[in-house]
Design a protein that fits this description.
about 325 residues, alpha+beta, Thiol Ester Dehydrase, Chain A
Length: about 325
């Protein structure tokens, strides 16, 4: 029986019927433009490419010189509106968000993105783009809460030619209520930290961590150091490598303070930092030894190994307020 049939039968539709009706309303936005004939605020340019490569630690020679191309993963960067936003965004996206907000799905988190590259972008290319609301999922329940996944597809053009496609997916959700302790029952044990994904490309790194050694990959062909670990050199593409052990000295290159959303095994607020090792590579890590609001760019930190539980040791960096 449909929701309309339930109304005709003289009874209120149940939760599932109401959710289906609301999802039908949401899917009416599929295929509607989120932005039409958008224009990148700047052409593809060398300074932005340099900033990106410095932030990512990417020294690939293809991104420098007279024949430079932009890193493919910068595809979305050329379409972003910055603090002032874009004036060419359509009303459909705002209308969709208003519906979701009105139904109580007021929180938002980015979940994933997919990119397809059709031709390289080069300095001087003028960027235009069109975005469409590609799909809105039925109601889903996640650890964060219950809501709908919204996927937007952006087609990026360079001097009129399709250069790539960027799909960006978010979850608009109602946060899950925090668990409450039941009277007379013992508190639940604290959740374990998530396990790292260990594979053939990074197994030696985690074995080193288990031995309280922070190992950095070194290309044996060109001696370039790299982190995180990769199956091949991002400077010369050689698959051959060995390792050097980090001395343990580093400085905070950048950081964020996580307040929300809360995750099991983490107690917000806490600082997540990108530290630059003395050897020149950078890694994402936690900062210990100082309150989260005392972490600063340029702060010297020192490697330590923190045992999280019986079978997990993590490399972290300790700072000092002195």
């Amino acid at each position: 029986m449909t929701a309309d049939a339930a109304d005709a039968a003289g009874r209120e539709p149940d939760g599932a019927e109401e959710a289906a009706r609301f999802h039908t309303l949401l899917t009416s936005f599929e295929g509607r433009p989120a932005a039409s004939a958008g224009r990148g605020k700047d052409p593809v340019n060398e300074p932005m490419i340099r900033h990106w490569c410095e932030a990512m630690g990417d020294a690939n020679p293809a991104y420098k010189g007279a024949d430079a191309i932009a890193p493919p993963t910068m595809l979305q960067a050329w379409t972003m509106g910055g603090l002032s936003g874009h004036t060419d965004r359509s009303s459909a996206y705002d209308e969709l968000f208003s519906l979701l907000d009105g139904a109580g799905f007021t929180s938002v988190v980015a979940t994933d993105c997919e990119q397809e590259y059709l031709r390289p972008l080069r300095p001087g290319d003028a960027i235009t783009f069109d975005a469409v609301i590609e799909s809105v999922s039925p109601r889903k329940t996640t650890k964060l809460g219950t809501g709908h996944f919204v996927t937007t597809r952006t087609d990026v053009h360079a001097d009129g030619d399709l250069a790539g496609t960027h799909r960006f997916r978010i979850l608009k959700y109602t946060p899950a209520a925090p668990p409450t302790a039941r009277a007379g029952k013992p508190a639940q044990p604290k959740a374990r930290r998530p396990r790292p994904v260990v594979n053939r490309d990074n197994r030696a790194f985690w074995e080193g961590v288990g031995d309280h050694r922070l190992l950095i990959q070194r290309c044996t062909a060109c001696a370039t150091l790299r982190f995180p670990w990769l199956p091949g050199c991002n400077a010369c593409a050689s698959p051959d490598w060995d390792t050097v052990e980090a001395c343990g000295e580093a400085t905070v290159f950048s950081y964020v303070v996580m307040h929300h959303p809360p995750f099991p095994a983490f107690d917000p607020p806490y600082a997540v930092a990108l530290v630059e090792l003395a050897e020149g590579v950078r890694m994402v890590t936690n900062i210990t030894g100082v309150p989260y609001d005392k972490v600063r760019i340029g702060m010297p930190v020192r490697l330590e190994f923190l045992r999280m539980d019986d079978d997990l040791v993590l490399p972290v960096f300790r700072g000092s307020e002195g």
